[in-house]
Structure to design on (504 residues):
């Protein structure tokens, strides 16, 4: 019997978090949460995770619109632009961030991490080991994104707050990362050693349908992602990364056709469609003017797709005429007319019920390709790279034959054998593949490597820095409710206060 998952998500959020009290950092903690089975909350938390890592735009104030999510990455890194006819968002074009910008990212991610923490605490008996493992994995997923955005954050104390002490201390970013690796390893052990009577979460697991082997692969891939973020740190590969990943083989990562996708049963009604789709389309299939006519192609992405004869360009972006796609550089003073530029295309906007992305098979394969290039894992870097590109084609609705033809070009930006810098090739193609799909990894890859190296950063003459910020500011709500802990982190500068793994 089909479950109305999205309605369930709303009910669970009300029951467990009292809208935003029990599990929200620095909110009032009620005396006792409602008792909710871990399975019911798992569905809601997975759905919330997808919603948090997508984007939401409110253009009530078109000059400084309210933004949630990670649209800034697509704009800053050459993939998207703002359409002609709209006022450019000056806080983004000028890299002039404030504490109020994207503060919902903080609140919503902590709320969702808190829901997984509740599952973890409610799953301490032998029959709940699978739920316990999933909760650990998903908390690691959320917290590594938070570290990548903010550096030091509340972690150890985040969900220990009481009525008399609701001001958690901040942990060092590197120590959090290292503990996340331990949590992922513990989760895999829990799954491997689960008793025969342990409940399988298939009824509520809207990502892997209770396939615990895929949860192990997801944990391994997330572990690899966290470790690869640290490759630019001096001596880190040999001293920490290789020993941490040495026992995992390529077949134990997410492979072809094994993407981590949430499938909660989206329906064609307001608030219940796929969250990315709903940014652009209403439930009656008419366009959301606040996004469908607002976000258009970025010139760097258009130039790359057209310059490498990449058919994915016509999937990422809709042609404005025939097979022509066009874009603008972000922050440009003079913008091309909307009739000469391309909106977001059908490869990204598939349908109201398209699956919600957590981690795709092609991102996993790109991670493995880069790791194999470094000698961090065993495997054929070229084969993994080519498989990643092929799966990107498949996701967008193109054929493997088209992918093979593309990879066979005598072009150093495509052909692995011809590329003089293999890492640059892998990461540039990863940037091209993750357009509109996984924004925070695009931001992280650039910060740790400097690739792609051809981005035209904002053309706004009043920009505060030549290149984009390397982090977000702590939200205004934290300054208001937990000021001592925030001030203890020192003076934060969005251009110089780097996350611990950064080199660029």
């Amino acid at each position: 019997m089909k479950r109305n998952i999205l309605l369930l998500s709303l009910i669970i959020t009300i029951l467990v978090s009292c809208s935003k009290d029990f599990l929200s950092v620095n909110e009032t903690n009620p005396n006792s949460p409602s008792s909710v089975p871990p399975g019911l909350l798992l569905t809601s938390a997975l759905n919330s995770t997808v919603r948090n890592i997508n984007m939401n735009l409110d253009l009530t104030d078109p000059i400084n619109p309210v933004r949630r999510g990670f649209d800034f990455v697509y704009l800053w890194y050459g993939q998207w632009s703002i359409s002609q006819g709209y006022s450019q968002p000056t806080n983004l074009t000028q890299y002039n961030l404030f504490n109020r910008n994207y503060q919902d990212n903080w609140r919503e991610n902590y709320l969702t991490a808190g829901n997984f923490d509740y599952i973890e605490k409610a799953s301490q008996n032998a029959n709940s080991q699978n739920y316990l493992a999933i909760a650990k994995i998903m908390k690691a997923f959320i917290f590594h994104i938070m570290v990548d955005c903010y550096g030091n954050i509340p972690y150890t104390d985040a969900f220990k707050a009481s009525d008399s002490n609701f001001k958690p201390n901040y942990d060092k970013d590197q120590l959090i990362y290292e503990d996340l690796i331990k949590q992922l390893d513990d989760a895999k052990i829990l799954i491997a050693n689960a008793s025969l009577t342990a409940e399988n979460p298939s009824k509520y697991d809207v990502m892997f349908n209770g396939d615990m082997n895929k949860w192990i692969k997801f944990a391994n891939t997330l572990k690899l992602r966290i470790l690869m973020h640290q490759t630019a740190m001096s001596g880190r590969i040999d001293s920490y990364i290789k020993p941490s990943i040495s026992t995992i083989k390529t077949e134990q990562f997410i492979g072809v056709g094994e993407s981590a996708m949430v499938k909660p049963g989206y329906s064609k009604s307001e608030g219940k469609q796929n969250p990315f789709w709903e940014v652009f389309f209403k439930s009656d299939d008419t366009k959301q003017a606040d996004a469908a006519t607002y976000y258009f192609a970025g010139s760097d992405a258009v130039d790359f797709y057209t310059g490498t004869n990449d058919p994915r360009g016509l999937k990422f972006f809709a042609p404005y005429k025939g097979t022509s796609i066009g874009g603008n550089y972000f922050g440009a003073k003079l913008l091309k007319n909307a009739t000469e530029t391309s909106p977001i295309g059908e490869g990204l906007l598939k349908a109201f019920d398209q699956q919600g992305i957590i981690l795709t098979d092609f991102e996993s394969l790109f991670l493995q390709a880069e790791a194999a290039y470094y000698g961090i894992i065993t495997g054929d870097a070229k084969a993994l790279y080519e498989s990643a590109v092929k799966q990107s084609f498949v996701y967008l609705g193109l054929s493997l034959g088209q992918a093979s033809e593309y990879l066979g070009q005598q072009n150093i930006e495509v052909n692995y054998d011809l590329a003089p810098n293999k890492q640059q090739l892998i990461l540039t193609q990863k940037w091209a593949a993750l357009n509109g799909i996984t924004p925070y990894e695009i931001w992280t890859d650039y910060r740790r490597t400097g690739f792609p190296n051809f981005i035209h950063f904002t053309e706004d003459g009043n920009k505060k820095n030549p290149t984009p910020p390397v982090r977000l500011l702590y939200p205004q709500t934290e300054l208001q409710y937990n000021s001592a802990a925030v001030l203890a982190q020192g003076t934060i500068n969005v251009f110089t206060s780097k996350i611990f793994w950064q080199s660029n």
Observations:
- Residues 1-34 have pLDDT under 50 and may be disordered.
- The longest strand covers residues 356-359.
- The CA atoms of residues 176 and 393 lie 35 Å apart.
